Amino acid sequence: MTLSDNVNGGKLDVAMNNSVWNVTSNSNLDTLALSHSTVDFASHGSTAGTFATLNVENLS
């Protein structure tokens, strides 16, 4: 399955600086740039068997 932001030709780039991303569902990114930042999968929930997937083409 391919998802698009329907903006910028469907390209989705995220740059985080001194930030926390509490991942709550599946996400797809073209580029993820992290500077003193955290991607927190633990915030998704404490129910056993729940998870989220983050697909990133380019990570920096």
From TrEMBL:
Residues 29-60 form the Pertactin central region domain. It holds the Pfam family Pertactin. It comes from the Bacteria. InterPro entries: Autotransporter_pectin_lyase_C (IPR012332), Pectin_lyase_fold/virulence (IPR011050), Pertactin_central (IPR004899). Signal peptide: none annotated. This is Pertactin central region domain-containing protein.
